[in-house]
């Protein structure tokens, strides 16, 4: 059923909604990851293991900072989807304006902090001396793209909250094309450009994100989208900013806990040398593909749950959970089998060093066997987050990472005197996360988050939802705008 904008997810076939809503997101993730893989091939095959190790040690820092933005935009998705489900147009406008205030402030602040503390954090991670300077240079340029990426994250979350997962795909595709074309030009100095090496990839990302962000904002205003950002104009914005922070802050902490856990685990891996770091980085690229369907199912389920809970359709949420587990579990099971059976072939796409391939293969055989467990966890967490109970998934992440993964990674790797101990710790932590998430979902306590929200007084009477985004307009800027 087509709504005034996007899609009404509160009626119709649930499996069809899951597939049609998550498919554009999955395609977008494949496109984005394909670009990332191409970048990794340029780096790993042409710039060497040192450059690949520099990217690997930088990634946890990047993801930690970006995780804060991801958490806040998850709050945006929850609030927008619940407003659409409840058909409260005034509340939708306040959600957009509060997101604008928060994203602009956080994007600027975190960029400045990241620029200053980057070298200190890399040293604390026990980054190899021959990698440190390259990693600092790469990271400082890459972080300049963070405000633009934050804005694009918010745009994607708002569109998805409307039930529209297609428009952001056009944005994403354009961003990927721009970055993919610029990568080799700036890395190798083609077409008269300076030969920048590894930092050329960071410059390519910065240019692509900035160009796409500007085009995306222009598109939303031209198409008169109800989520077009601008100078905040909704009345009584304070309560909505507080609500956004209340939902987004735990989600941001959750993302940071995941990222910081990765940072600490990467530090433990670094202690086993550059080859282990490169193997961990190459195997993590395979992880990106493996988790991609589950992550997108989880995002889709969060939006479906948000709209249906906003409309008061709790019975449909239980069906969303069942179908989500079926889809996510089946797909990750197939991926897991491929990864466990053919790890060497997959790793040689990125790196040829025999020792790195051997170490990476051991990671994929151990961790890859557990992919399906994590895939189902994304489904139950999606329901919980869709209700607004992001604090719960944050606590689950904290326990999983800091009480299980990090201590086990350190203990097992030292007891076994092998980096493989870290691989076992990661696999075991997946089972702990699934157990905790499922226990909370089946308890039904996640419904209280929605009941608490509904009990809050509304600042204004509900207004009808505003003008549609013209579907035909989505393709006009497809080659000019993108989201990464």
Automatic annotation (TrEMBL):
Subcellular localization = Cell membrane
User: Do you know which Pfam families this protein is assigned to?
Assistant: MatE
Question: What residue ranges carry the coiled-coil annotation?
Answer: none
Q: Which GO terms describe its cellular component?
A: plasma membrane
Provide the membrane topology annotation.
Multi-pass membrane protein
Which UniProt keywords are listed? Answer: Antiport, Cell membrane, Ion transport, Membrane, Transmembrane, Transmembrane helix, Transport
Query: Which molecular-function annotation in GO is an example for this chain?
Result: antiporter activity
Q: Where are the transmembrane segments?
A: 21-44, 50-80, 101-118, 138-157, 169-191, 197-219, 323-342, 362-384, 391-410, 422-443
Task: Look up keyword Ion transport and say if it applies.
Answer: yes
Protein name from the UniProt record:
Multidrug-efflux transporter
BP terms from Gene Ontology: monoatomic ion transport
List, alphabetically, the CDD domains matched: MATE_yoeA_like
């Amino acid at each position: 059923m087509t709504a005034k904008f996007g899609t009404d997810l509160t009626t119709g076939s649930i499996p069809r909604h899951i597939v049609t809503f998550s498919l554009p997101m999955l395609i977008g993730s494949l496109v984005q990851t394909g670009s990332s893989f191409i970048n990794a091939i340029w780096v790993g095959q042409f710039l060497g293991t040192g450059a690949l190790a520099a990217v690997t040690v930088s990634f946890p820092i990047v993801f930690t900072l970006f995780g804060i933005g991801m958490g806040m935009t998850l709050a945006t998705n929850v609030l927008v989807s619940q407003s659409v489900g409840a058909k409260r147009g005034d509340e939708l406008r306040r959600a957009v304006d509060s997101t604008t205030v928060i994203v602009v402030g956080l994007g600027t602040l975190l960029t400045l902090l990241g620029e200053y503390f980057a070298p200190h954090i890399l040293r604390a991670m026990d980054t190899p001396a021959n990698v440190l300077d390259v990693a600092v240079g790469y990271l400082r340029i890459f972080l300049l793209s963070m405000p633009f990426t934050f804005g694009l994250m918010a745009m994607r979350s708002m569109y998805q909250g409307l039930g529209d997962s297609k428009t952001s795909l056009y944005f994403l595709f354009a961003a990927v094309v721009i970055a993919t074309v610029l990568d080799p030009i700036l890395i190798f100095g083609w077409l008269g450009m300076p030969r920048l090496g590894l930092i050329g990839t960071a410059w390519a990302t910065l240019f692509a994100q900035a160009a796409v962000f500007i085009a995306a904002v222009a598109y939303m205003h031209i198409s008169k989208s109800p989520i077009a950002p601008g100078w905040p104009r909704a009345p009584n914005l304070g309560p909505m900013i507080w609500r956004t922070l209340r939902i987004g802050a735990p989600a941001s902490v959750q993302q940071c806990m995941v990222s910081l856990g990765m940072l600490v685990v990467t530090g433990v891996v670094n202690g086993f040398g550059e080859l282990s770091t490169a193997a961990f980085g190459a195997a993590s690229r395979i992880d990106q593909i493996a988790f991609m369907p589950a992550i997108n199912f989880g995002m889709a389920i969060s939006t479906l749950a948000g709209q249906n809970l906003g409309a008061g359709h709790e019975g449909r949420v239980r069906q969303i959970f069942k179908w989500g587990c079926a889809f996510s579990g089946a797909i990750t099971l197939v991926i897991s089998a491929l990864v466990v059976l053919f790890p060497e072939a997959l790793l040689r796409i990125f790196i040829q060093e025999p020792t790195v391939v051997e170490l990476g293969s051991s990671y994929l055989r151990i961790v890859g066997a557990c992919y399906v467990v994590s895939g189902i966890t994304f489904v139950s967490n999606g329901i919980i987050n869709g209700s607004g109970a992001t604090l719960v998934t944050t606590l689950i992440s904290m326990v999983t990472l800091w009480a299980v993964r990090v201590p086990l990674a350190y203990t097992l790797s030292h007891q076994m005197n092998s980096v493989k101990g870290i691989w076992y710790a990661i696999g075991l932590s997946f089972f702990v996360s699934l157990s905790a998430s499922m226990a909370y979902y089946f308890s039904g306590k996640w419904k209280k988050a929605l009941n608490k929200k509904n009990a809050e007084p509304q600042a204004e009477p509900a207004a009808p939802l505003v003008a549609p985004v013209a579907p035909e307009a989505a393709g006009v800027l497809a080659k000019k705008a993108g989201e990464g």
